[in-house]
Amino acid sequence: MLSWVNQFNICCFLDNQRYNLPHHSFECMAAAGAVQTLATVAGTAFEELKQLCETSNDWLFGHLSYDLKNETEGLVSNNTDLIGFPDLCFFIPEVILQLSERELLIGTFGNRHETIFHEICSVEPVREPNQPLGAPINSRISQADYIAIVQQLQQHILRGDCYEINFCQEFFAEHVAIDPLQVYNTLSQTSPNPFAAYYKTGQQYLLCASPERYLKKEGDRIYSQPIKGTSQRNLNDAGEDVKSKEHLFNSPKDRSENVMIVDLVRNDLSKICEEASVQVDELFGIYSFPQVHQMISTVSGQLRSDIHFIDAVKATFPMGSMTGAPKKRVMELIEQYEQTRRGIFSGAVGYITPEGDFDFNVVIRSIMYNAADQYLSFQAGSAITFYSDPEKEYEECLLKAAAIKKVLSGRG
């Protein structure tokens, strides 16, 4: 199915990789081709998206860039962006595919269902593993500089500027030619995750193995599932793997980070939800993925009847787990200390239904690729608190980047 979708200039493929996490509503969904496209920059982007939803009354697929913060909080983005995704892009697809264990549902303009089914069946899936990158993977920040920056951020925390900040660094390769579909397939096999996405807009590609949901609306109910807290798997020793999981659950540092973000999300949802309806459905849930255990909490609330669903997204964006608290101040510090514009990284990819429901992931554990400029990038970060050990935070970044490095080395 993905091989057929990839033939279009714009497409979005969403796959839960057979994970049965709370509130999942589909196994696999894809959108291909565009009847209409909105690609715009921060400023009036959310209002333009709202107008598109109201006038089209159709399915929309696309992304929200982290740099929409400039619209929601009056901030700026002056760091370098060599990938080039728009700040916001959504499209009404020519074809929608919904796959379950038992059936494939095809939605399309015109009576082409049978033709499309035969076309999908006739396209050979990509079976070959991706080739080694053939170019060095560079780090935008050295280990020494990273540690020095974390120490500076801890001084900001000591002065009361913020409580916690998500600090990220970029890894990149230049003058590289890859087959994005092959790389995505290898990434999915190496690191299957419940919010995986293959997303293409012209020459820009996102190959995403995200474990995290940003926001979902189902009827009048809003759900957010922030992740904070990571420990390494030990697949060669079941006993040690259990110990790692238990250590994460009982870790005061990880619990502190997680509850800070849960409080931030509760505060965000309280702006758009009925009074006293916001609740923590699960706190400190531990979920296991191929490389890591993650601490995931679930927060939900009842959306107010006078709030447009796009305004619900605007009021809570970007995801608190990728900023820190308080949100506006830490985003100022992120701009000051990070070396690369985040762009689509730590933004969101997903869909909006004709009824106004939606589901968006958090773009992490992802490869971004600009095919025109042959520039490849991925970012990794961790939550910095006053009690953080800078060297361990650096090691956590490397742990999160390990699956991607393995894929790009051809060993995925």
Automatic annotation (TrEMBL):
Protein name per UniProt: Anthranilate synthase component I family protein
Q: Which Pfam families does the record associate with it?
A: Chorismate_bind (PF00425)
Instruction: Enumerate the spans annotated as Chorismate-utilising enzyme C-terminal domain.
Output: 143-400
Species: Niastella soli
InterPro entries, A to Z: ADC_synthase, Anth_synth_I-like, Chorismate_C
